[in-house]
Write a structure and sequence with these properties.
Layout lengths: L2 H28 L5 H21 L2 H7 E9 L11 E4 H10 L2 E14 L2 E12 L8 E13 L2 E16 L2
Parallel strand pairs: 1-6
Antiparallel strand pairs: 1-2, 3-4, 4-5, 5-6
Length: about 170
């Protein structure tokens, strides 16, 4: 028997044996962890999408983006030992979104705090109602929000107003 068939068989076995290593290497490249700034940018973009959907009255988007246990705490009365203006459940917040009361909600000064698959954002938004009593149309809210990555996608867990709303002159 010549060495040729043995070399061909060895080459074939080596190629097949190398496939798992190539597959593992390829998986390693595609599963490389994202850098903190990439995660922060991803969550901030998601947060902007949610704000735009709230202004549009897009209940489908906001509902899909929100966790089943979502809560939205309005008003900062709780920060001084009092009660918040109100605390919305997910259903309560979807009812508000469905009414589409906002002309705009613009995020400002938002920062992120990363904790693996949990991200806290904190900052401010400037909101404007479509219709409101004089002196209560435009307002600012400082907030803290929590997001968690579940099933490969981000979910909005909660919003808590930490200062505001503060109404501005129309």
């Amino acid at each position: 028997m010549s060495a040729w068939p043995i070399l061909v068989m060895f080459a074939a076995i080596s190629s097949v044996a190398a496939l798992p290593a190539i597959t593992v290497a390829a998986r390693g490249q595609s599963a490389a962890p994202k850098a903190a700034h990439e995660i922060a940018a991803e969550v901030l973009a998601f947060e902007r999408e949610i704000e735009a959907a709230v202004v549009r009255g897009d209940v489908g988007f906001v509902d899909a983006a929100s966790a089943p246990t979502f809560t939205f705490t309005h008003g900062d009365g709780w920060t001084t030992g009092g009660a918040p203006l109100r605390v919305d459940s997910r259903a309560d917040w979807m009812a508000t979104v469905a009414k589409s009361p906002y002309a705009s909600r613009v995020l400002d000064s938002v920062k992120t705090e990363l904790h693996g698959d949990v991200v806290i954002t904190y900052g401010r938004y400037v909101g404007r109602f479509k219709a409101a009593a004089p002196g209560r149309r435009q307002f600012t809210v400082w907030f803290q929000r929590v997001y968690a990555k579940r099933g490969g996608r981000w979910q909005y867990l909660s919003h808590r107003t930490v200062h505001g709303p503060v109404y501005e002159n129309d």
